[in-house]
Task: structure prediction
Amino acid sequence: VSAPVTVTVSVPSGSYEVLIGQGVLERVGAVVAETCAARHVALVADETVADYFAEESLDSLGTAGIRGELLVIPPGEGSKTWVRAGDVLESMARAGLDRAGAVVALGGGVVGDLAGFCAAVYMRGVALVQVPTTLLSQVDSSIGGKTAVDLSAGKNLAGAFIQPRAVVSDTATLASLSETEWRSGLAEVAKSAVLDGEGFMAWLEAHAEAVVARDPDAVQEAVTRCVAFKAEVVGADERESGPRETLNLGHTLGHAIENVAGYGAVPHGLAVAEGMRLAAWLAERHAGAQPGLAERQGALLDSLGLTRTRRVYDIGRLRKAVSADKKSREGRPRFVLAVAPGEAKVDAVPEELLMEGLDWWVSSAGKGEKS
Ligand SMILES: NC(=O)c1ccc[n+]([C@@H]2O[C@H](COP(=O)([O-])OP(=O)(O)OC[C@H]3O[C@@H](n4cnc5c(N)ncnc54)[C@H](O)[C@@H]3O)[C@@H](O)[C@H]2O)c1
Result:
């Protein structure tokens, strides 16, 4: 098994290290001690993750002389609310956490976003350490400092930027992930590979089988490449005013699919993969993308087990949902268009082409065809 590795994220507001490897959870106490100087922390986890990993985390904190208060929330996106954040903050106050305390977010993107948001507002901000335990959170959400909770009007509508002091990504924790959660993460891995460039894309093509089989070394390498890629993008654009927007590749149609199908009916990863297929189709026709890139990306998604949804969608409803995307400007949807591995732009596409693209997508997805 490969030795753990460290990737540094450098943003204008500071820099921090991401520790990636099999079994690094046992070092969480030492990492908190080194980076936060805290003696008292709130360890936030959902019920599932707490059952698997709370004991080892509390032991590690204890060994480092840190008192951990375990705060457990129900699993699922339904917990990422303003009200739940209030409960966590009240519990932190009741536990007597002060400004010198810290928050450790142990879990997937839901806990990372919720606990991170609590860290950003508790006493106007306390130290945060992210300990991601899903593939999606290890390759994406734990890096970059975006935190949020959902409002009834929509996802992630209340939030804050807070960079963690450190990220501890134990790739061994991923062994217990469900196949659906695993695939959600794989779609983000594919997205990172296409956006990062030829090196990562070719590596993923060559190692897709090992990654799908969760081979420990292949998984560690994939996570490390994704983190290095995201660190670079975030380092250049901490507050998402420019290049960071390209990280939304596949998400314009992806979010629309989730919305039209009904939240939870189509796994997030599959929806993003479908969005990447449409974006590639559009990029070939509108952005002068490298010939064959759409086909190459389609084959990569297929080899990662990101199969077509096979549902049939109403184009009118999809078109409307596409406009609700946050990248839209004056009601005109914009898409992240990869023109070559490692090269992407964000652009609106002509209405006619968009409708033609949606038509192509609906018929190809419904038949379960390869793109
Ligand atoms: N802040 C960001 O930059 C950013 C980026 C992308 C996504 N997100 C957010 O991330 C969230 C999705 O994150 P997610 O996909 O990790 O979902 P999640 O946190 O809900 O985790 C998915 C499920 O996996 C379970 N789980 C977690 N770790 C496990 C493990 N090791 N073994 C077994 N089960 C485990 C959880 O209990 C949960 O039921 C969304 O709310 C999204 O908005 C944030």
